[in-house]
Specification:
With 130 residues, this protein is α+β, with helices and mostly antiparallel strands. The protein contains three helices and four strands. A four-stranded antiparallel β-sheet has the order 3-2-1-4.
């Protein structure tokens, strides 16, 4: 019984550490996106986000997470949690710092990222979405 409780506690602790979608960053993104749409300029800087990151990867619907061009450098296990390989309702924006995922958000496809490449890491310093 003692071991059962100990292993149960460890399992709960590990599950609690699992990376989940960043709702605070998603809220910031929605404000940026909606403001750009409302002002009809369609341009904004993601460097305004309250997050320490240096590059962005956009994962499109039905993407095979294991076949992402950068999967040898990036731990894509976190992306598997999003079920992106079988979903068509979202794109996943993955924020990285030193090739480590620091945050990700699932963005509705009402926000069009179709002009951007799926097989490219976008640098924070030169990313201007429009």
């Amino acid at each position: 019984m003692k071991y059962f409780l100990m292993y149960g506690f460890i399992a709960v602790a590990l599950l609690g550490c699992a990376k989940t979608e960043d709702t605070e960053i998603k809220a910031e993104l929605l404000i940026l996106f909606d403001s750009a749409i409302e002002n009809k300029n369609g341009t904004f800087q993601l460097s305004q986000l309250n997050l320490k990151w240096d590059s962005l990867l956009i994962v499109f619907p039905y993407s095979d997470v294991q076949r992402i061009k950068f999967s040898d450098r990036i731990n894509t296990d976190i992306l598997s949690q999003t079920d992106i390989q079988s979903r068509d309702d979202v794109c996943v924006l993955v924020f990285l710092k030193d090739d480590k995922i620091v945050s990700y958000v699932e963005m509705s496809r009402e926000y069009d990222f179709g002009k951007l490449s799926a097989d490219k890491l976008y640098s924070k310093n030169c990313l201007n979405l429009s």
